[in-house]
Amino acid sequence: MRTIEVFDPPMCCSTGVCGPKVEPRLADFAADLALLVDRGHHVTRYNLSQEPGIFASNDLVRSLLVAHEDDALPAILVDGDLCVFGRYPSREELLVAVGETDHSTRRASDSGGRTELRIASSSSGCCSVDETVAAGNDATQQRCCD
């Protein structure tokens, strides 16, 4: 199984479900990560505003930030290798990056359950260390890998 690390830009909540305006792409991405967790992959998310030391200690992420500044994030690494930066990948891109051959587009909530997803963040702010992510039921996917 693969290890996926997500280096998010500074924000209050990586799921996109807190605050007055829900960010649909962040909620979809959280659901996509939950699918990977369900399939046995290890996923960890880091938030720049809460964990700047992790960003500084990762040579690849640090070099991306130096070269691209704010446009570097989000950065997604799979087994330490850069998968994509500057945008959140589609579900299909994530599945390809982890070597999945089953490209099911079902969201975790389609099965009626909730998926536990570990999000590495401090308990300050609006998010706790462990969040229960409820996947959206919008099956529309953005295809970015053409």
Question: Notable features of this structure?
Answer:
single chain, 146 residues, alpha+beta, four-stranded mixed beta sheet, two-stranded antiparallel ribbon, 4 helices, 26% helix, globular
**What level of helicity do the residues show?**
25-40%
Per DSSP, what share of the residues sits in E-state strands of 2 or more residues? Answer: 15-25%
- Could you give the distance between the termini? 26 Å
Radius of gyration: 14 Å
Secondary-structure element series = EHEHHEEHEE
Shape: globular
* Strand order in the largest sheet: 2-1-3-4
> Helical segment tally?
4
State the secondary-structure class: alpha+beta
List low-pLDDT spans: 105-146
Largest sheet: 4 strands, mixed
* Number of separate strands: 6
Mean pLDDT comes to 74
Secondary-structure map:
Layout: E1 3-8, H1 24-38, E2 42-47, H2 52-57, H3 59-68, E3 75-78, E4 81-85, H4 91-97, E5 115-118, E6 130-133
Parallel strand pairs: 1-2
Antiparallel strand pairs: 1-3, 3-4, 5-6
How would you characterize the overall build of this protein?
With 146 residues, the chain is of the alpha+beta class. Helix content is 26%, strand content 20%. It is built from four helices and six strands. Strand 1 (3-8), helix 1 and strand 2 (42-47) form a beta-alpha-beta unit. The longest helix is centred in the N-terminal third of the chain and has 15 residues, at 24-38. The chain is globular and about 35 Å long. It starts with a strand and ends in a 13-residue tail after the last strand. Residues 105-146 have low confidence and may be disordered.
In short:
The chain has 146 residues and is of the alpha+beta class.
